[in-house]
Design goal:
By secondary structure, the chain is mostly beta strands. It has three helices and 25 strands. A five-stranded mixed β-sheet has the order 6-10-9-8-7, with no helix packed on it. The structure holds calcium ion (2 copies).
Amino acid sequence: MGKLLVLTLLGAGLALIGERLVAIRQRTNATREVRSVEPRSCHLIEGLENGSEDIDILPSGLAFISSELKYPGMPSFAPDEPGQIFLMDLNEQNPRAQALNISGDFDKASFNPHGISTFIDEDQTVYLYVVNHPHMKSTVEKFKFEEQQHSLVHLKTIKHELLKSLNDIVVLGPEQFYATRDHYFTNFFLVLLEMILDLRWSHVVFYSPREVKVVAKGFSFANGITVSLDKKFIYTADTTAQNIHVLKKHENWDLTPVKVIHLGTLVDNLMVDPDTGDIWAGCHPNGMKLLAYNPEDPPGSEVLRIQNVLSEKPKISTEYANNGSVLQGSTVASVKHRKLLIGTIFHKALYCLL
Ligand SMILES: [Ca+2]
Ligand SMILES: [Ca+2]
């Protein structure tokens, strides 16, 4: 009886592991290859060699780029260098990326910038909010942008019990933002377990100085977050569920589900085209190639555009795709007047004319 029980338990255990492995391979598109798609003209951006995870473009055409992210489980080609924020002026004929100076009471050595979001106040002051992972923890840093000085002045660090394992942020008021928590756990091994079991404990948090609350939950891996042009809807990417959630924003900042757009690729950051309202999504066509990085068979890049987001049948098109020979691990695609910037977790960045 004892042996039979051991055998039964062993069999059940192996079956469960097998089932989980199959599920992970499906969630990460482990067998998928991409075919190249390239806009009219693209070139790599000089000076951005070690990641450009998130990119936010101001109405004036100035683009902020977060660079050199260190994220558990992901490769980093510049592990000893602190992160930086770069600026590019898309009004220039040949825009160049230049690192911004950071001033104020701020520990630059542990700067590890991830998702970013800009906010323009009524008096036209530009603020940049940055998800930071100093020593692999999560904070939100608020900076004031000083264009003449080409610098960011650090104003404050925001920390909260609910603001853990942060990924991206969208700022919608002088002190109000939504942020995605990509995992419930913060310990790497527990995160791994959370992913393997697909617990769906990832969520979206609302922050204001008065109130902090969870406003949307049940995500496998909540990642990019942004807002519609009319500010009525929030778009959130669920990476390993391979979809985008459209959520309605209410007066009290609560969010309610409207619909889910399935993309069949591992969606990372989302940006909205200021001219059309289309969503541009930086995606990972094959997540397994990211997790098990092999320079001989690198992870590729993919950018999708979603038109007529609120209609019954949104139109989804591939605007850029590459097998990793040019660009690896794309996270974001930011557009402004037919100019496109594509960023990556740890690799290069691309500038294209559409
Ligand atoms: Ca962002
Ligand atoms: Ca992200």
